Sequence to fold (136 residues):
Amino acid sequence: MLSPNLQTLRVFLHVLAATVWVGGQLTLAGLVPGLRNLSPGAPRAAARRFNMIAWPAFAVLVVTGLWNLAEVDLGDRSTEYLVTVFVKIVVVALSGTSAALHAGSRSKVWLAVWGAVTGASAVLALFLGVLLRSGA
Fold:
């Protein structure tokens, strides 16, 4: 059996946190229509509970993402790789910012807008992470 090391732990924590942040958003989006049928307040209650694990997961993503970046010798990387890193950082910031705006929204329109931006940016950040890993 292979022996785990600090790199294994770092990547595992990053992937686990991404699973919660991205997968949780997709799951919650799929559950909301059914939750509305249960009660008008059920989606909000579920979202509040989700936020209790989602925000710590986002913090782990940021910390392990910076840790991952610190382990890369950027001086040996192509311009394309560096641009992709920059774009990913912007998309991650958009994901967190739009999630905070979604959580603070009170109108249905802004809940929908920020929810869509959050979901799309979270999936895009995940894709960019895989792209960076495959280009490593």
About this structure: The mean pLDDT is 95. The chain is about 85% helix and 0% strand. Helices lie at 6-38, 42-70, 79-104, 108-134.
